[in-house]
Amino acid sequence: MMLRLRNAESGTPIPFGPYLAIAGWIALLWGDQITRTYLQFAGFK
């Protein structure tokens, strides 16, 4: 999505760090809730 906004070519490397940092914050703030919801949806809980 970001590549399309910047009009970049498909060979342009995508920085991985910002996505990893955002995922860390999401896991820190809502990790338990996401895990519980997933397990309930999958039928394990």
What is the arithmetic mean of pLDDT? Answer: 87
Globular, elongated, flat, extended or rod-shaped: what is the shape? elongated
Q: What is the H/E order?
A: HH
- The number of strands is 0
The biggest sheet, with number of strands, parallel, antiparallel or mixed sense and barrel status, is: none
Count of helical regions:
2
What is the helical fraction, as a range of percent?
55-70%
CA gyration radius, whole angstroms:
16 Å
Distance between the termini: 35 Å
Protein name: Prepilin peptidase
Organism: Pseudomonas aeruginosa
Keywords: Membrane, Transmembrane, Transmembrane helix
Notes on the protein architecture:
There is one protein chain. The protein has 2 helices and no strands. It has a domain at 17-45. The chain is elongated and about 45 Å long. It has 45 residues and is an all-alpha fold. The protein has helices at 2-5, 17-42. The model has no long low-confidence stretch (mean pLDDT 87).
Helix-strand layout with pairing:
Elements: H1 2-5, H2 17-42
Please sum up the structure shown.
With 45 residues, the protein is mainly α. The protein is built from two helices and no strands.
Provide the descriptors you would attach to this structure in a database record.
mainly alpha; 45 residues; single chain
